[in-house]
Structure formats: C-alpha cells, structure tokens
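[Discussion] Sanity-checking designs against the backbone

I'm trying to build intuition for which residues belong where. Below is a structure token string of 57 positions. I'd appreciate it if someone posts a full sequence so I can compare it with mine line by line.
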C-alpha cells in the first residue's frame, strides 16, 4: 500500500471520528477509529517490510 496511503487512511479516520463526535454519531466515531487502526497497522507492515528489505533477507 505505501506509507503515504497508510498515513492518509489514519488522517481520514481521525476526521471521521471527529465529525462523528460533533454530530453525536457513535457509528461514525467507531468507523473512524477503525480506519485509524487499519492505517496504523498498514504503516507498521510497511515499516517492517522496509526493515527486512534493508537487512537483505
């Protein structure tokens, strides 16, 4: 996916969570938190893939 897309997913999730809070929409808040978690996971995977690639494995 790429680090930039992972960061974008995290930012989108943060905006969705904030909007959900402002509107009192619990579902939107939960979706935002989920997107943030997915983005963080994807970013971690990208970091690990880079680390493995640099180590020559």
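Best answer:
Here's mine. Compare freely.
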């Amino acid at each position: 996916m790429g680090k930039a897309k992972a960061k974008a997913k995290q930012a989108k999730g943060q905006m969705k969570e904030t909007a959900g809070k402002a509107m009192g929409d619990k579902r939107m808040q939960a979706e935002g938190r989920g997107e943030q978690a997915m983005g963080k996971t994807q970013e971690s995977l990208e970091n690990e893939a880079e680390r493995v690639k640099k180590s020559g494995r």
